[in-house]
Amino acid sequence: MQTLDVRDVSPRERHPMIFDCFDQLAPGDAMELVNDHDPKPLYYQFLAEYPDMVGWEYLEQGPEVWRVRITKRGG
Hints:
Order of helices and strands: EHEHEE
Helix content: 25-40%
CATH superfamily: TusA-like domain
Mean pLDDT: 96
Strand content: 25-35%
């Protein structure tokens, strides 16, 4: 599983980078996102752009580090 740590990436570049990484996943594969805040808005963006294709599991929920396993569903 690939880990993508966006804590040192400028905010405007984060979502495009995350979606690019997600697009490169094969169905069934996952990535781990590391962030400095709850990425809940990103979750809603995933639901809007990839309905029924994304799995979202919190691995760590702050207060300083947030880790989420994002899985690409489908086949």
